[in-house]
Amino acid sequence: MSVLNSIIGSSQEVLALRKLISTVGKSDSTVLILGESGTGKDLAARALHESSSRKMKPFIPVNCGAIPKDLLESELFGHKKGSFTGAISDRKGRFQLAHQGTLFLDEIGDMSLDLQVKLLRVLQERQIDPVGSTSSIDVDVRVIAATHKNIESLIDEGKFRQDLYYRLNVLPIEIPSLSDRKSDVPELVSFFAQQHAEKHSNPIRLNNETMRIFLSYQWPGNIRELSNLIARYSALMPGAEIDFRDIPLSMIPALMRKTLDNSSGGNSSNNEAIISTEPNPLGGFDNSFSDVERIISLAQGANTLPEEGLHLKEHLMGIEKDLIQQALMRSDSNVSKTARLLGLQRTTLIEKINKHNLQS
Question: How far apart, in whole angstroms, are the C-alpha atoms of residue 255 and residue 217?
Fold first, then answer.
C-alpha cells in the first residue's frame, strides 16, 4: 500500500486531503502541515515525499521538540571534530543526510528563536554551517515542517519569527481532526484491528453498541488514540467481538465514560454499556422500597437502629458502597459478574459505581 493510500478514510475531508497531497507533492516548495496531535502529520509528510520527484532519495524526520535545544543545531547541521566536548569526529547533520531528498521538521513550533534564525538562513541560501566549521556546505533539500501549535499566536507572543513562518508557509496543509470526520471511524477501526491482530488470531470487531459509542466520542487524541485503543482491546480480547459490557471500566478512556450517555441521546436503557455521570436530581440513589429492602437484607447486622437514631438515606448509601466494593473485589472488578452478585442491572450498577467514585 502506498503511503498516500494509508491515509485511511472515505470522508470528503480525507478525499480532499489525499488529492491536495498528491498535487502539492509534485512541487518542490516548502510545506507547512498543521493539525492537532495524533492526526497523522508525519504520515502526510511521508505521503508528500512519496508523491514527489525526490521519492527515491532519503526522507529524514526530525522531532524538534524531542531533541534538547543545545543539541538540535548539531543534529540539523552537523559538527566538526573537536567543536565541543564529546565531538570526537566529524558528523553529518540531518540536512546533509537528506541531500536531494526531504527533511521533515516535526513540531517546528518548539524550536528556539536563535535556531530559527539559522534555519531561516538555510532556507534562503540553501547552505548549512556545521558547528565548528569555517566553510558552508551546499544542500539540496525539500523542507516539510509540521506543528500542532498555533504559529500565529506564537508570533504574537514573540516565540516564533514571522519571517520564518512566511518562508515555511508556502504550501499549507491542514489535517482534519478525527472529530471532524467521524464517518471514517469504522474504516479506521477495521484497519487498526487488522494491524494489531495477535498472531494466529482474527482481528477484533466491535458490536453495534460499542461502535455507536466510538462514533459519538470526540477523540481528543485523534487517530493515535483510536489506534492505541484498538491495540489495547486486541491484546485484551484477541479475535473477539468487543462489547463494553465485557470490558473493565479501567480499560475504557475516562473521557469516553463521561460521554457515553450522549451516544444514546440520554436514554441509558437503550444501551447497557452506557455509564451515567449525571447526578440524580434528588441528590441520591433510587429510592424505591424494593431497592431499600434489598440493601438492608444484604447488610448483616446493619438493621439495628442506634439509640440516637441515624440518617437512613446516608446510612443506606454507605452500606451500598461497602457491598459494591466487596462484590467488585470478589469478581476481580468484572462489572458483569459484580452485577450478577448483587442482583442488579449492569447499567444500574455502573451508575452506582460512578456516583460512589469507585474504581472497578
Answer: 8
Residue at grid coordinates 459505581:
353
Task: Quote the pTM value.
Answer: 0.71
Cα–Cα distance measured from residue 74 to residue 115, given in angstroms and rounded to the nearest whole number: 11
Closest-CA residue to 155 (of 167, 163, 143, 144):
163
In CATH, what number does 178-278 get?
1.10.8.60
Of the candidate CATH numbers 1.20.81, 1.20.120, 3.40.50, 1.10.10, the domain formed by 284-360 belongs to: 1.10.10
pLDDT digits (tens, 9 = 90+) for 218-239: 999 999 999 999 999 999 999 9
Return left, alpha or beta for 118; rule: phi > 0 is left, psi -120 to 50 is alpha, else beta: alpha
Pairing, β 59-63 against β 102-106: parallel
Question: Rounded distance, CA 359 to CA 64, Å?
Answer: 39
Residue 339 Cα distances to 82, 284, 317, 336, angstroms: 69, 19, 17, 5
